[in-house]
Amino acid sequence: MTENLSRILIVDDERPIRRFLSDSLDEQYAIFEAANGKDAIRAAASERPDLIILDLGLPDIDGVEVTRRLREWTQVPIIVVSVREQENDKIAALDAGADDYLTKPFGAGELMARLRVAMRRAATEPSEPVFQTGGLALDLTHRTVTLDGQPVTLTPTEYDLLRTFAKHAGKVLTHHQLLRTVWGTGYESDTHILQVNISNLRRKIEADPARPAYLVTEPGVGYRLKIT
After folding, report:
1. What are residue 147's DSSP bridge partners?
2. pLDDT digits over 28-54, tens only?
């Protein structure tokens, strides 16, 4: 029964792309479509989707601006799919509030994996006293961190950084977003301080900091805390 399926809004001005996405997803999700930004915003309000797949190159409103407008009133997961592959395009979309970014062309399997991660993150997003992924656990009430049951000692800044990742687990966070959230508005361009703290945090929570299993790098964009 479609009423029991998660609802996905596909926003793309190209009918063949909408058809490909719909055919890939309609066995597991209830699908709605929009061909431009204005219709996308209206559909998001009326259909209340559980996730939005959004193209950036829309004929009326750029997808980055659509994302900003949606973020004024909803936190529904947004996965951007676009032919734009420059880092500044990805950063602009993610800074506007997108949860993930896929560059066209992409495979249906990769899309499904990104959808599952975004859905899991949204399902667990309400503040819970303990966040856990794999052997890493963060007690938000008592401000403690354990790895495979053993306590991990973090500095206040490292803890705030890890808490930010935990609150947005599975979502790509840009350098700008992390600096603004953890250090404040005067530090948005200070990527060195972020890199140093990421490096220190990895040494404390990763079995192999050179091949991180938890805090993974999105090259040129930012970082993501993996959900396992």
Report:
1. 136, 150
2. 899 999 999 999 999 998 888 999 999
